[in-house]
Amino acid sequence: MKTERSSSGRLTVLAKHIGLVLIGFVMLYPVLWMVVSSLRPGDEIFRSPGLILDSLKTENYTEGWYALSPSFGTYLLNSAVLVLGCIVGNLVSCSMAAYAFARLHFSGKRWWFGIMLGTIMLPVHVIIVPQYVLFSQIGWVNTFLPLIVPKILATDAFFVFLMVQFIRGLPRELDEAARIDGCGHPRIFAQIVLPLMTPALATTTIFTFIWTWNDFFTQLIYLTDPDMYTVPVALRSFVDSTVATSWGSQFAMSVVSIVPIFLAFLIGQRYLVKGIATTGGK
Questions:
Q1: Considering the entire predicted model, what is its pTM?
Q2: Is 9 or 107 the better-scoring residue by pLDDT?
Q3: In 118-153, which positions are buried (b, 16+ CB within 10 angstroms) versus exposed (e)?
Q4: Which residues have CB under 8 Å from 85's CB, separation 6+?
Q5: DSSP string, 83-102
Q6: Where would you tag: which of 33, 148, 171, 185 has the fewest CB atoms within 10 A of its CB?
């Protein structure tokens, strides 16, 4: 009887694993097809939906790299600078705002916290017009400032909420012990709370990296000079309504553009899972 139950359990587990593999393949198929298409000649890309290469054309990567002026390396550098600025801005400002909401006592804290959470429900399309008018009047259009400065002002309420929940889970006895030793809020935040927030900070870093790297709409709005284009906007330049689109080159550069995201998730997935799990359990 036990042998039959164990065999049935193994078959069930095997069937679940096979199902998960099939579902994973279906989800990854578009990415795999894009990688394969980046190595096909342009006239063969849309002839077959399969993943088997009939002919290999590695020149798509070279042609795509130099297809635009400047080269694609400039767009990668622009995206890297923008991502770095957004990450630093979110880590500094959101952590400080979260500490204030979690540990400080000030008038109207609950109301301000509720208003902050309410901003999460505002779509970017609602605020993009007044923001553009403001940044245009102060001469920030076609610079990275409209994309980085809001991050320095803790406008990403999701990350503030994430860190608030994490800080609330830290023992207050640590703060009290530090206060007995003569520490004020700046030292408590910098030397006690901040080192313990590594999972939440890592989660913020990874999400900010992915969202900023993939952002197309706001970067298209504010960046008008081709020399300032980021990767998503540059990829759009491969599609031309007046001439034939070089799909092979576009797919090749699309593969190049997802490599940093893949590496960021691969390196930081342990911190990402830990940060979300510990924050959700508080």
A1: 0.85
A2: 107
A3: eeeeeeeeeeeeebbeebeeeebbeebbbbbebbee
A4: 144, 147, 148, 151
A5: HHHHHHHHHHHHHHHHHHHH
A6: 171
